[in-house]
Design brief:
It is a single chain. This protein is of the alpha/beta class and 385 residues long. It is 27% helix and 28% strand. The protein has nine helices and 25 strands. The protein has a five-stranded parallel β-sheet, covered by helices on one side. It has a five-stranded parallel β-sheet with strand order 11-18-12-13-14. Strands 6-7-8 form a three-stranded antiparallel β-sheet. Helix 1 packs parallel to helix 8. It is globular. It binds flavin-adenine dinucleotide. The site of flavin-adenine dinucleotide has 34 residues, from helix 1, strand 2, helix 2 and helix 8.
């Protein structure tokens, strides 16, 4: 009879990577850490923003997941087709795998096809292929209007569309096209990064508008007319474009929704400090979760939270299984750099679990903070591979 425990980590993105690595370091080899992921390579999504403006290559921001095997993590490369949270079982390309514990880190599924005309008309810079297509398409544009479009809430990385607009504007200006190309940003949000509070939202809006970007909050797209190159909104407005860069609607992965883990919000409800789901021994972390804050809005979806939550779940499983360490709690701390172009970045950080409102501070853009963001990218890709 095997004495060791098996932990199945579903998804090898930011949360799954951190959870599997920490579990492997914390547990002796009699216990198995199994990571299941359908992609061959891990790709660092925050760098899509640099890739789409030609500042990164795919190879520079990707790492083969097979390297994790050297750490003693059992990697299964395949598509998770079904999950049974009661029995801690996953089916991967027809193969059944059962563990003692499940850590669900399957992220958010992108659903551009839910908006008629969107996929054929624009570039989804939230995917690697879409960011590469946008990089190439922007070189074809010499005059006209670029629309950066946020389709629906929630979406991961609340700062990313604002950064994308500012980086595109800077890219055109650098290439002496600033006078000929206008950048507009449409979003259903009342203002940028609303969960960070009105002051941060005002400051980010000011950063965007100071670049000459025209910001249109409270616009929800209903469809895109690809042949007329026009976005239609539910308030009757419309926006013509020459180049469309979009953040697609997000939803929980189908395999998660089908297994009964999602709640009313469409995401997985968890204990906000331990990340336990309603099923004993089953944890969910990162973008797949729905954690309601006392202000009435959900915790944003971001890598920093996936990372922090993974640390907590791994520490607690190590503690439960081996008695090592102490129980940990996720306390809602988050931070993010905000690229503003011109070689600068701002930085927001604070406590998203603060009552009654998150307490977030924003540091104004500087070259030093941009260097900090570059250093973070290097650290991340070095640390986990
Ligand atoms: C352009 C952009 C910029 C960003 N910038 C930042 C930033 O500056 N700071 C920040 O904190 N966050 C940022 N983010 C957000 C961050 O990347 C995500 O919040 C983070 O990756 C979430 O981690 P996760 O582990 O929950 O999900 P993911 O990292 O998305 O991982 C989920 C994994 O599950 C796998 N998977 C899904 N379904 C299956 C299945 N059925 N079978 C097998 N495998 C499956 C996927 O292939 C994926 O690898 C950015 C995102 C984008 C797109």
């Amino acid at each position: 009879m095997a004495l060791g425990k098996t932990i199945l980590v579903l998804g090898g993105g930011i949360g799954g990577l951190v959870a599997a690595s920490r579990l492997r370091k914390g547990l002796s080899r009699e216990h198995r850490v199994v990571l299941i992921e359908r992609e061959r390579d891990y790709v660092f999504a925050p760098s899509f923003l640099w890739l789409m403006t030609g500042l990164r290559q795919r190879e520079k921001i990707s790492r083969p997941l097979s390297k994790l095997r050297q750490q003693g993590i059992e990697l299964i490369q395949g598509n998770i087709e079904r999950i049974d949270p009661e029995t801690h079982t996953a089916w991967v390309d027809g193969r059944k795998i059962t563990g003692d514990y499940l850590v669900i880190a399957l992220g958010a599924e992108l659903a551009p096809e839910t908006i008629p005309g969107l996929a054929e008309a624009g570039h989804n810079f939230y995917s690697l292929a879409g960011a590469e297509a946008l990089r190439d398409a922007r070189l074809e544009l010499h005059a006209g209007r670029v629309v950066v479009l946020v389709c629906a809430m929630p979406f991961k990385c609340p700062a990313a569309p604002y950064e994308a607009a500012m980086l595109l504007e800077y890219d055109f200006r650098k290439r002496k096209l600033g006078e000929q190309i206008e950048v507009d940003l449409y979003s259903p949000e009342p203002g940028p990064m609303p969960v960070a509070g009105p002051e941060v939202s005002r400051q980010v809006r000011q950063m965007v508008e100071a670049k000459g970007i025209v910001y249109h909050p409270e616009h929800t797209v209903t469809q895109v007319d690809a042949s007329a190159r026009c976005v239609l909104f539910d308030n009757g407005a419309s926006a013509n474009f020459d180049l469309l860069a979009y953040v697609p609607p997000h939803r929980a992965p189908q395999v998660v929704a089908e297994c009964g883990l999602t709640g009313e919000s469409g995401w997985v409800p968890v204990h906000r400090q331990t990340l336990e789901t309603q099923f004993p021994g089953v944890y969910a972390i990162g973008d797949v979760t729905g954690i309601m804050l006392s202000m009435g809005k959900p915790l944003p979806k971001a890598g920093v939270f996936a990372h922090g939550e993974a640390e907590v779940v791994a520490a607690n499983l190590v503690n439960i299984i081996s008695g090592k360490g102490k129980p940990a709690r996720f306390e809602g701390h988050g931070e993010c750099f905000i690229e503003t172009g011109d070689g600068k970045a701002g930085f927001g950080n604070g406590n998203f679990y603060a009552e009654p409102m998150p307490e977030i501070k924003l540091r104004q853009p500087s070259r030093t903070l941009h260097v900090g963001k570059v250093a973070f990218e290097k650290y991340w890709l070095f640390e986990w591979f």
